[in-house]
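hi! just following up on the protien thing from before. the input was this:
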Amino acid sequence: MKLFKKVDARLVYSGLVIAFGAAVFFCAFNNLNSIKRFLKTLLYYISPVTSGLVLAYLLRPFAKFMERVPLKKIKSDKARVHISSLSAVVLLLVIIVFLVATLIPQIVSSATTFASNINDYIASAKVFIADALSHVDFIEVDVDKVIGSSDEIFKAIVNWVTNNGDLFANFLKEASSQLVNFIIAVAMSVYALLDRRNLKRGLLKLERVVLGKAKTERVNTILNRGDTLMMVFLSSNLLDALLIGAANFVFLSIFKAPYVLLLSVFLGAFNFIPTFGPIISGVIASVVMLMVKPDLLIGFIIFTVVLQQIDGNIIGAKILGNTTGMSEFWVTFSLLLFGGMFGFVGMMIGVPLFSVIYYLATVLVNEKAEKRGLKTADEFYYAVDRYDTAAGEFVMMDENAAKKRRKPRKDGKEPIVKRIGNRFRRKK
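and the predicted 3d structure came back as:
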């Protein structure tokens, strides 16, 4: 009788939970617009706080560096924290003032000038294409047909420039209208930096109370992994983007190309996006070069291809290393996923975010494999040919075939940015 009572109690409890969940889902489904408005309003009001926390997170490495290098002789721990936090915020403000006072006005002016002269540039590009095709003797080319086909491309460019020609100006206008929110965000970043140790202790206490010891250690391992990946990825990609932008600036300046700063910033910013960024920026910049300085087009394409090869195989490899631990397939997948959901920002941060998910999935799979008495090393599975269902075991390849499939060994070195950062990281 007691068994039936327990079963009945469980059934009643499960039924109530399901009914409550169904009711919540039904209400939410019938009030989607209201929920969207509520969330939009909530995000609007808390955006200064969240922005401040993001700023504090990005400024934290500089603050920690200040504590451990220039300020290490200051005996008062509280004084070091205060000075380092204020120094980080001052650095942020200096960068913003520099951008607003120097770079951004020049970029806005170049973008506006380009937009106003777009029709003249297109006409010049058509003349250049027609002249270039007229000198092609080894294949028969219908010049009029090629020009006619390119009209659609040029029309698309005109439409985009017309609709987005004041993009930078609108951005500045919007930024100025959000000046109060920005001031609040900066203030919140100061408070978060000053109180970062207490915030960390509070979060650890909350984790320990809610999750327990084992789960707390597991969650902290994942969070530390995510923090390391995010910081190394952002800093290394920022350094790489600056190098690419500077290289393009020097090249375009030497050959006296127009819109040097605009093109350099554009090429550098898109280089921040793995895989797709350099391709997209290179194609767009080549089209722009065709319109504004067609005689430099071939040289610019050759320079871009060579620069990207050097960056991908030498510079980027030294700076980034194997930061994410993911294959090109998963890198591309993360770019498409987060880019589709969050646009340009999603493409910039999608790879490190997905790498944390990838790391968590790897940990869970390895734990499951260990419980079932299976090997966890990837090298073992590189040599697997198939799984014999009858025997219930893996069938291995011969040694020669396994060598061909086996991944090349890494040198085991960490990225330059991470190695430099480790020098200033306090040992626990």
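Strands lie at 384-388, 393-396.
The chain has 16 helices and two strands.
cheers
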